[in-house]
Structures are given as C-alpha cells and as structure tokens.
C-alpha cells in the first residue's frame, strides 16, 4: 500500500485507519507519493551527512566614517515611453565618446560614466525604463542615488511618468527633472511643472527642492546644465564610500558573449576590484580574469560608483544580485554551495507541504467514501460507485449529443467480485471516450441464469460473462429471445469483443 511505503520511507508511525481508507488511491497519486517520499528521505540523509551551518557571505558592517571617501552619483533615467530617455542617454554617452581616443568602440555594459569639465563624474545606468529599476529594487538592491525624470514638454505628465515618480519615492531617491523636447514649437515646460505639483514633485520655482532643467535631447541642448544639476543634487546627498577592503557591488546586467563567455556588468559600491579577486553573486562565483569599461578598455581597478564589465564567472548571476568578494576559491565554492542547498531546501519544504496537504485531503475524502459504503454489501457498493461515476461523467459537457440508438445495454456476470469490479472499471474508462454509451443494466456473480436472459431481453442488451458458463438450456432460451451471450476468459478478448459490439451499434455513415 502506498501509504505504507510513504510512512515506511518517512520512518514514522502508520495510521491504520488511513491505510484502509486509501486503498482506492489513483495511480498518479501513488507515483507522486513514492517519488516525494523518496525525495524526502534522500534529503534528510543528505542533511545528516553534512551538518550544515550557514556558510553564506554577507556584507561587512558599516565602515568607520574616517575611512569614507566621496564617490560619484549613480543615476537612473526614467520617464514615459517616447519622452526621450534613449535619446538623452545616447547624447550623454556621445559627449564622452567625443572625448575618447579615436578607435575606441563603445561597449554596452549597462552603465557609463560622464565626466564633467569640472572633473566630476556621473554614472548613468543605461537600462532605461523602470522595469530594470524595479527588478533591482525587488531584490533589495539599491544602486541608484538619483532619478533623472524625463518629461516631454509637448506631452506632459503621463502614466509612466507617475509610475516613475512612485518608484523614486518608494526607493527614497531624489528626482532631478529633465523637461525634454524644449526645441519643439508646442513645448510647454511650465505646464509640466504645474502638472507635477499634483504628484508632490515641487520644482524650485514653486518653492520646492526639485531642480528642473529645460533640455532638448535631440539637439543636445542644455545637457551639461542637466549634468551639473545632477552633481548639485549629489553634493547634497554627500555620497561617500569605503574604497578599501573586500569588494561589495551589484550586478547590473549579465550575458553570454561569444568570445568572452559569461560577462557580468556591475556597479562597485565598496572596496576596489582588481584582477584575480574572487567574487560571489547569487549562485555563481568568479575569479576576475579581466575587467573593462564602457569603452571596452581593459582596466586594472574599479572603484565605488564605477561601472565595470567583469569576465571570469562560472555561471551567470542575475541583475540585482549582490556581489561580494571572498578570500579564496574554496570559500567561494562553499558560499555558492550553501546558497544552492538553501534554495533547494526551501523548494523541498514547499513541495512537501503541498504533498502533505494533498495526502490529508485524500485521506479525508476516502474516509467519507468508506463511511458511505460500510453499510452496503460489495454488490451494492459497486453499483453505487458505478452510478456515481456515470453521473460525474454526464455532468461534464459532451462533445456530441448521444442518440438513444447509441446506447449498448449490458449485463455482466463474473466468477468473483474482483473480476466484476475490474470489468466495471475498464468499462468506465472505455465509456468515457466513445460515442456509444454503455449502460450497465445488471451485474452479478455466477453462471448465466434465466434471470439474466430476461433482463437482456427487456433491455435489448448483451450478456457478457467472464470466467463463467452458460448451460445449453440457457443458450437455447437466449437464442429464442434474440439475446446474445458472450463468454470470455481473457479480459483482453472481452474488451475487444465489447469494442466490436459498440461499433456495430454506431449508425453507419457513408
Ligand atoms: P524613450 O522611449 O523615452 O527612450 O524615447 P526616445 O529617446 O526613443 O525618443 C522618442 C522620440 O522622441 C524619438 O523619435 C526621438 O527622436 C524624439 N525625441 C527625443 N528627444 C527629443 C527632443 O529633445 N526633441 C525632439 N523634437 N524630439 C525628441
């Protein structure tokens, strides 16, 4: 019995009641229970084998303020679709490309640095849209210091503008407003500012602290003013980081590059990343083989707020994953191992909870069935079950309306109740898929009797006998009454015969 296997595998006590109740478990369920029981057993063994303790890597405690050094801001550009986010990012990037040595190829590493003439730098995340932003936030990653909210001056505040504001507020990140498309004739920057008041974004003109810069991303107008406003905002935030000790950072993007394999781009948030550093992120680890910047140039060191491409990952971590430096490769393996173990255990716990719930439900249902049938004899029980199943089936919508002529009334006789039950079950599955419906009018044990023949005559049915006989007298009586008697000893022949009989009852189509 399945429950026995389950309980035996789990090594717990067996509830005799439930054993009896579960004798009608369906096959799928049986397989599932065995599988899950085996899984749980395997798992508990594994747990015993290795006494597990938390081996995870974590961020260091907050640094001593004396160790903190100013760092540049990390900015996300957000706003409604078509308001000019991509154009703005492209233009900002190009201000740098122009300053770059000839021959450099811009690489997409999910973020880039813009250096102002004053020497200050801004890191722009160039995965625009708030999907990336919220994906990271959902993972608890906070890489953005400032949101540049782009609003087209000819269009005003739109749905995603409002969503962007909400994201920034949820993350407690200040906004710098870029009123874009100011080159357009119908641009109305003042209207934008007024509209934003309704969302608690109050520009300086209105007595608030949100800086608004009128720009044209397309023409490249006033972009430096936007960058300066961003720097001014950053200064108020007094952004600082600890440039020493093991690295901490966040994965911005992760992808497989044809030539270089698994590449992860990241923003460093603490420490200084160097070649050879051992990192863990999510369930992957890396020995840093190569680092490069957004110009594809190999770099030797990456500091806080710097975007960097990292090569050397074993697997791909996900955007938003926390990056932590550990002391050695064995330690990295240990951390990743632990995380995988933990994840699997979580999943396992969840699976087993569901299985346990299902099992209980199942037991309850079968107990009810038992109660209902306990006062009936085997024959009554079978018939009640047969009727119940039939009812269940007829409550389901049928593909085609069955005609009366498509019903085959049958009488079943068997040698023992087990065989009758087996046949009834078979009929049941057979019945479900055919246009001709089986109608069980009578069934019982023993040889074919006159009574059976009478039944068959009344209902225009066929008598099927399994491992039973029909005497000469009965056969003659049946022949006289036009009743077919079919006797079989092999269930397979029985079913074949039944199929033939059924198809002969179908109206013949030309
Ligand atoms: P995104 O969906 O926010 O990334 O918007 P895009 O940068 O793709 O810009 C949408 C359209 O607006 C494109 O056709 C751009 O050329 C245009 N556009 C973007 N910025 C400006 C601008 O400052 N002035 C004008 N006139 N058109 C702009």
Features:
42% helix; 14 helices; elongated; six-stranded mixed sheet; binds guanosine-5'-diphosphate; six-stranded antiparallel β-barrel; alpha/beta
Protein described:
Monomer. Belongs to the TRAFAC class translation factor GTPase superfamily. Classic translation factor GTPase family. IF-2 subfamily. This is Translation initiation factor IF-2, mitochondrial. Keywords: GTP-binding, Initiation factor, Mitochondrion, Nucleotide-binding, Phosphoprotein, Protein biosynthesis, Transit peptide. GO terms for molecular function: GTP binding; GTPase activity; translation initiation factor activity. This protein is α/β, with parallel strands linked by helices and 510 residues long. The protein is built from 14 helices and 20 strands. Strands 3-4-2-5-6-7 form a six-stranded mixed beta sheet, with helices on both faces. The radius of gyration is 38 Å and the shape is elongated. It starts with a helix and ends in a 5-residue tail after the last helix. About 6% of the residues have low confidence. The site of guanosine-5'-diphosphate has 16 residues, from α4.
């Amino acid at each position: 019995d399945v429950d026995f296997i389950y309980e035996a595998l789990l090594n717990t006590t067996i509830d005799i009641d439930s054993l009896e109740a579960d004798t009608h478990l369906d096959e799928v369920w049986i397989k599932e229970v065995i599988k899950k029981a085996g899984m749980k057993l395997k798992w508990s063994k594994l747990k015993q084998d290795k006494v597990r303790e938390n081996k995870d890597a974590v961020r260091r405690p907050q640094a001593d303020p004396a160790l903190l050094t100013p760092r540049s801001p990390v900015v996300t550009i957000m706003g409604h679709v078509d308001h000019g986010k991509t154009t703005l990012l492209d233009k900002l990037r190009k201000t740098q490309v122009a300053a770059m040595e000839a021959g450099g190829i811009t690489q997409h590493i999910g973020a880039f640095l813009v250096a102002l003439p004053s020497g200050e730098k801004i890191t722009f995340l160039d995965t625009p849209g708030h999907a990336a932003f919220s994906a990271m936030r959902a993972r608890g990653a906070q890489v953005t210091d400032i949101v540049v909210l782009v609003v087209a001056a000819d269009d005003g505040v739109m749905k995603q503008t409002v969503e962007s504001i909400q994201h920034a507020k949820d993350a407690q990140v200040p906004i710098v407003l870029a009123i874009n498309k100011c080159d357009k004739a119908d641009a109305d920057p003042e209207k934008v500012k007024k509209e934003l008041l309704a969302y608690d974004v109050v520009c300086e003109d209105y007595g608030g602290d949100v800086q608004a810069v009128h720009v044209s991303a397309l023409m490249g107008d006033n972009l430096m003013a936007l960058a300066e406003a961003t720097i001014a905002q950053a200064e108020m935030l007094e952004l600082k980081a600890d440039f020493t000790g093991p690295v901490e950072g966040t994965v911005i993007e992760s992808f497989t590059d044809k030539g270089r394999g698994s590449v992860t781009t990241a923003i460093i948030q603490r420490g200084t990343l160097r070649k050879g550093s051992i990192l863990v992120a999510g369930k992957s680890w890396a020995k840093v083989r190569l680092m490069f910047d957004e110009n594809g140039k190999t770099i030797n060191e990456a500091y806080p707020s710097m975007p960097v491409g990292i090569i050397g990952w074993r697997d791909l971590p996900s955007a938003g994953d926390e990056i932590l430096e550990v002391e050695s490769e064995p330690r990295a393996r240990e951390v990743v191992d632990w995380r995988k173990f933990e994840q699997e255990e979580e999943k396992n716990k969840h699976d087993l909870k569901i299985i346990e719930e299902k099992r209980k439900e199942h037991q309850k249902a079968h107990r009810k069935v038992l109660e209902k049938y306990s006062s009936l004899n085997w024959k009554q029980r079978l018939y009640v079950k047969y009727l119940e199943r039939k009812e269940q089936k007829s409550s389901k919508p049928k593909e085609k309306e069955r005609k009366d002529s498509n019903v085959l009334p049958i009488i079943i006789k068997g040698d023992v109740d087990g065989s009758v039950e087996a046949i009834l079950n078979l009929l049941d599955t057979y019945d479900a898929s055919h246009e001709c419906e089986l109608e069980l009018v009578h069934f019982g044990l023993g040889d074919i009797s006159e009574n059976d023949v009478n039944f068959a005559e009344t209902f225009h049915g066929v008598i099927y006998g399994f491992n039973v006989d029909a005497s000469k007298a009965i056969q003659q009586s049946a022949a006289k009454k036009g009743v077919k008697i079919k006797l079989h000893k092999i269930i397979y022949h029985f079913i074949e015969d039944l199929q033939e009989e059924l198809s002969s009852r179908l109206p013949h189509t030309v």
